[in-house]
Specification:
- By secondary structure, the protein is an alpha/beta fold.
- It has one domain (21-255, 267-323): 3-Layer(aba) Sandwich (Rossmann fold).
- The chain has helices at 17-42, 57-64, 80-85, 90-97, 132-145, 163-174, 194-197, 222-237, 268-273, 277-287, 292-315; strands at residues 72-74, 151-156, 179-185, 188-189, 192-193, 213-218, 243-248.
- The strands form two sheets. A five-stranded parallel beta sheet has the order 1-2-3-7-6, sandwiched between helices.
- A hairpin with a 2-residue loop joins strand 4 and strand 5.
- The longest helix is centred in the first third of the chain and has 26 residues, at 17-42.
- It is globular.
- The protein starts with 16 loop residues before the first helix and ends in a 29-residue tail after the last helix.
- The chain binds thiamine diphosphate (TPP) and magnesium ion.
Length: 344
């Protein structure tokens, strides 16, 4: 392994003001939608698990901007930001959290199981690390078909301790699969801090064990995220093999809605809030010539869109009980190829 730690040279233009405005808008929208989701949870309009992404928005938005619509995305249960960055509407996302039929997973998946085939967004999984081999599988399909697609897999620092993660890494590198493994290191796995759960604190170093290209970058600035993930995606798409990245980030809320997050060190949350990704994007926009009124108008539009999603979800119908077992298995098994025993 010669230079696993060196990111390839940048090959993307700096984002234009309209692009950056769109990224800012999306980060703000994710945050506002999640703030309303937190409210709905305390009102018992959302039941079950609900893991908020607040603080990490730059990672989802910057990385989604590095993909094409044909690329595949697989993620864990902290998935609200990723699916919205992929283009799923706040209405469809919020309706899913409320368990209503217009939800992106028909109202029967809930917060942890957001999924949209149309957006090549393959979930939303609750088993820590269990989804990582699925991303390798999607990348295998892309390579087998030679269609130029890349799979992007998000996972946490806790998931980078799991066996499924190591196995997926080994196989992806062996077969040079077009996959980017993106660890969102937010310093905690539930209430367990990073240094209590891992000897390595930069999860990209896991790539060294299998000879995979890898690097770490700060995840607080959407442009920096975009540039880093874009380089990794380009590398994977070129056929040069997978990449493992670590984005250093931080979640402002507890692990899930039931966690008051009392385990943080004094001042820790404030020190990360000082690097807030939305404030960073605002500063970038002002430097590019945006004015304060423009940003205030945009914030008003985003607040209204988030509220609209809440109201829509609140009024939407619950799924028809007759659909309970739909979407569990494919409606039909594919026909067996001649001369084979088929897939069963
Ligand atoms: C296999 C498995 N073990 C344990 C759990 C319980 N659990 C849910 S989330 C979590 C922490 C994962 O942390 P991380 O991967 O860092 O993701 P984050 O929540 O920080 O986004 C654990 C241990 C689980 N869901 N699955
Ligand atoms: Mg974590």
């Amino acid at each position: 392994m010669a230079d696993g730690q060196t990111p390839p040279a940048p090959n993307s233009e700096a984002p234009t003001r309209p692009q950056l405005t769109e990224w800012y808008r999306m980060m703000l929208l994710i945050r506002r939608v999640e703030e309303l989701a937190a409210k709905a949870y305390t009102q018992k309009k959302i039941l079950g698990f609900c893991h908020l992404y607040i603080g990490q928005e730059a990672v989802a938005v910057g990385s989604a901007a590095a993909l094409t619509p044909d690329d595949y995305v697989v993620t864990a249960y902290r998935d609200h930001g990723q699916i919205m960055s992929r283009g799923v509407s706040p209405r469809a996302m919020m309706a899913e959290l409320f368990g209503r039929s217009p939800g992106v997973s028909h109202g029967i998946g809930g917060s942890m199981h957001l999924s949209s085939r149309e957006h090549n967004f393959f979930g939303g999984y609750g088993i820590v690390g269990g989804h990582i081999p699925l991303a390798a599988g999607a990348a295998f399909a892309a390579k087998y078909r030679g269609d130029g697609r890349v799979a992007l897999c998000y996972f946490g620092d806790g998931a980078a301790q799991q066996g499924a993660f190591f196995e997926a890494m080994a196989m992806a590198q062996l077969w040079k699969l077009p996959v980017v493994f993106l660890c969102e290191n937010n310093y905690y796995a539930m209430g367990t801090s990073l240094e209590r759960q891992s000897y390595l604190i930069d999860m990209s170093q896991r790539g060294d064990g299998v000879g995979m290209k890898r690097w770490q970058f700060p995840g607080f600035d959407v442009v920096e995220v975009y540039e880093n993930v874009r380089r990794a995606v380009d590398h994977a798409r070129s056929g040069a093999g997978p990449v493992i990245l670590e984005a250093v980030t931080y979640r402002y809320r507890g692990h899930s809605m039931s966690d008051p997050a009392k385990y943080r060190k004094d001042g820790e949350l404030d020190s990360f809030r000082a690097k807030d990704c939305i404030k960073n994007a605002e500063a970038r926009l002002l430097a590019l010539g945006a004015n304060a009124e423009e940003l205030t108008r945009l914030q008003g539009e985003v607040d209204a869109e988030a509220q609209d999603a809440y109201d829509f979800a609140d009024k939407a119908p619950i799924p028809d009980p007759a659909t309970l077992y739909d979407y569990v298995y494919a409606p039909e098994a594919p026909a067996a190829a001649p001369g084979t025993e088929g897939g069963r």
